[in-house]
Specification:
mainly alpha, globular, 88 residues
Length: 88
């Protein structure tokens, strides 16, 4: 087995993908989140450093693509709630 050449880069990509999936499942309005500018950057940073990746992934997989309530273990729960789409 070979060691990945860019392990941190892969980690960041994996975390960003999980955050994107979480926002979609929770009904977050991406445009609202991105317009929050510094808050969005801070949320990405919190996600990258989060110690709950397994719980987050399990939460996402348990929902199997249907709308879900956000979990309190997420360090971005308040930001995501503030950016929810109107239709959710």
């Amino acid at each position: 087995m070979t060691t990945p050449r860019w392990p941190m880069f892969n980690h960041v990509l994996r975390r960003h993908a999980l955050m994107d999936e979480t926002m979609e499942a929770a009904g977050v309005d991406l445009l609202t989140a991105v317009r929050a500018s510094e808050a969005f950057v801070a949320a990405r940073s919190k996600c990258r450093a989060c110690l709950n990746e397994a719980a987050c992934r399990n939460w996402f997989l348990a929902g199997a693509g249907k709308p879900q309530q956000l979990s309190e273990f997420c360090p971005n729960v308040e930001f995501f709630r503030a950016c929810k789409r109107e239709d959710r």
